[in-house]
Write a structure and sequence with these properties.
This protein is α+β, with helices and mostly antiparallel strands and about 425 residues long. It has 13 helices and 25 strands. A hairpin with a 5-residue loop joins β21 and β22. The structure holds adenosine monophosphate and glycine. Adenosine monophosphate binds next to β7, β8, β9 and β17.
Length: about 425
C-alpha cells in the first residue's frame, strides 16, 4: 500500500507493481488518474490510526509512506506498533525534515558542511543576528511549509519583515514560530537520494530538480517543475567524496543520537566554490525526482524497501540502467500562486515510445472525466539511452497532453545540456 496522492506515489506504485514479489499494489488515497491503473482506498493521510486501520482491513504486507506530513506525524511508529511492516523513517528520524532548526544543530554538531546559521524564536536576538549578516541572507521557517518556507532576502528590511511575519505565526502558522537565518550559498544544486537502513544505505543516481517556476530558473519557488537523472555534474569521485564527508557522518550522527534511520534520506546539496554543503534533508523521495530516479533502477526496488523496513543490512551493490530520465511537470498557469482547477485533460495516444504519464494534481468531474485539481497536474516522463532522448520523449508527450491552462517549462535540463 502506497500512502499519498501525488506523482511520487504514482511512480512508486508503478515500480512496485513491476516486482515479482508483489501481488497487488493499492494506493491510499491516490487520485483519479492513479485509479485508472491501481485500486485506490479512501484515506486521510494525517490520521495515523486510520492508516493502520486501512492497512489492516486490506491485509497489507508492506506500507510505503510517500509524503513528509504523515512521516513527521509518526505514521511509521503507529504502523510498527500494530506490527505492520512500513517503509519510511519513524518520527524521530523524520525530524530531519520536520525541523530545520534541529537539522542545522545536528549538522553543526557532527561537523557536516552547511551554511552558517542561527536559530531564533524571539525577534530581538534574530534582528541582532541579522545586523551582522551579509546580503542576500536566507530566512527559513523551521517547520514544514511544502517547500515554500524559504525566503532569499536582498535587504535587511526584507529579512526583518520575513522574520517578523514568521515568528508571529502570520506567514506559516506554527511552522514559522522558530526561524533559521542562514548564509546565502552560491552554486549549483543537486540532490542525492539514499535508501537507508541504519548505517547501511544504497545511493541512487544524482538528480537535479528545477524549483523556480520560470525558464532560466526565474520567478517563484515551486515544489519542482521538472527533473532529470543522472547528472554529469557529479562524477563518481565526487560522489565518493560526498559519501565520506556527508553521508557517513550523517548516518553515524543519527545512530549516536539514538535514531535508527530507515527509509529515504534526500540530501539537498549546494555545490559551492568551497565544496558541497547540505541545504536540507528530506526524509522521503523527492517529487518530481522520484519520477526520474526509480525508472533507472535495474534491480527490484521492493526487496530494498522490505530490507529497510525490517532494519536489515542493504546490499552493497545495486544495479542501475545505463539510461537517462527526464520529467517535465505540466502545471496550471498561475501556480505556485492562484490557478484554475477543473479543466478537462485529454491525452492523445499512442504515447511516444519510452514515455509515461504520471498523475499528480488531478480530480474527476461529474461526468467522470479526469480534470486538473492542483498546481502540478501531471508529469511527462521520458526514459532513454541518453538525456537528449529522454528530453525528446518527455517533450513529445507534453505536446500530446491538453488542458486549458497547461503550462510547462521548455528548458528542463538546461544546465546539463550546457555542460556539453
Ligand atoms: P530548503 O527547503 O531549505 O532546501 O530550501 C528551498 C530552496 O531554497 C533550496 O532548494 C534552494 O534553492 C534555496 N535555498 C535554501 N537555502 C539556501 C541558502 N542557504 N543559499 C541559497 N539558496 C538557498
Ligand atoms: N522536489 C523537491 C522535493 O521533493 O522536496
Amino acid at each position: 500500500m502506497v500512502v499519498g496522492s501525488g506523482g511520487r506515489e504514482h511512480t512508486l506504485a508503478k515500480v512496485c507493481q513491476g516486482s515479482p514479489l508483489v501481488g497487488e499494489v493499492v494506493v491510499a488515497p491516490g487520485n483519479p488518474g492513479i485509479a485508472q491503473e491501481f485500486k485506490t482506498l479512501k484515506l486521510e493521510v494525517e490520521n495515523n490510526s486510520l492508516i493502520v486501520k486501512v492497512a489492516q482491513e486490506n491485509k497489507v504486507d508492506l506500507v510505503v509512506v510517500g509524503p513528509e506530513v504523515p512521516l513527521c506525524n509518526g505514521a511509521v511508529d503507529a504502523l510498527q506498533e500494530a506490527a505492520i511492516l512500513a517503509y519510511g523513517p519513524n518520527q524521530a528520524g523524520a525530524r530531519l525534515e520536520g525541523s530545520k532548526a534541529y537539522t542545522k544543530d545536528f549538522l553543526s554538531k557532527y561537523e557536516i558542511p552547511t551554511a552558517d546559521y542561527g536559530n531564533f524564536t524571539q525577534i530581538e536576538p534574530a534582528f541582532e543576528y541579522l545586523a551582522a549578516c551579509n546580503l542576500p541572507v536566507v530566512v527559513k521557517a523551521s517547520g514544514l511549509a511544502a517547500g515554500k518556507g524559504v525566503l532569499i532576502c536582498q535587504t535587511k528590511e526584507e529579512a526583518e519583515g520575513a522574520v517578523k511575519d514568521m515568528l508571529s505565526g502570520g506567514s506559516f502558522g506554527d511552522s514559522g514560530r522558530e526561524v533559521v537565518i542562514e548564509e546565502f550559498l552560491d552554486g549549483e544544486e543537486t540532490s542525492l537520494h539514499l535508501i537507508c537502513s541504519g548505517e547501511s544505505y544504497v545511493a541512487m543516481p544524482m538528480s537535479q530538480d528545477h524549483k523556480k517556476v520560470g525558464e532560466g530558473d526565474t520567478g517563484l519557488n515551486t515544489g519542482g517543475m521538472g527533473a532529470y537523472a543522472p547528472t554529469k555534474l557529479v562524477t563518481e569521485e565526487m560522489l565518493a567524496d560526498y559519501e565520506k564527508s556527508i553521508v557517513g557522518p550523517t548516518l553515524a550522527g543519527l545512530r549516536n543520537e539514538g535514531v535508527d534511520f530507515r527509509g529515504t534520506l534526500y540530501i539537498g546539496l549546494m555545490l559551492t566554490s568551497k565544496g558541497p554543503k547540505v541545504l536540507e534533508f528530506n526524509v522521503r523521495f523527492g517529487d518530481p525526482e522520484t519520477q526520474v530516479i526509480l525508472p533507472l533502477l535495474a534491480d527490484d526496488l521492493v526487496p530494498l524497501l522490505l530490507q529497510s523496513a525490517r532494519g536489515q543490512t542493504l546490499p552493497e551493490k545495486v544495479n542501475f540502467k545505463d539510461a537517462s530520465s527526464m520529467v517535465v511537470v505540466l502545471s496550471s498557469a498561475g501556480y505556485p500562486e492562484s490557478y484554475p482547477k477543473g479543466e478537462v485533460i485529454s491525452i492523445a495516444s499512442p504515447l511516444p515510445e519510452g514515455s509515461e504519464v504520471i498523475y499528480a494534481g488531478v480530480g474527476k468531474d461529474e461526468s467522470g472525466q479526469i480534470v486538473s485539481a492542483g498546481g502540478r497536474v501531471l508529469g511527462a516522463v521520458g526514459t532513454g539511452d541518453s538525456i537528449e532522448q529522454a528530453r525528446e520523449q518527455a517533450y513529445a508527450l507534453c505536446e500530446q497532453i491538453e488542458f486549458k491552462s497547461k503550462f510547462y517549462r521548455n528548458d528542463i535540463g538546461h544546465r546539463e545540456f550546457s555542460r556539453g
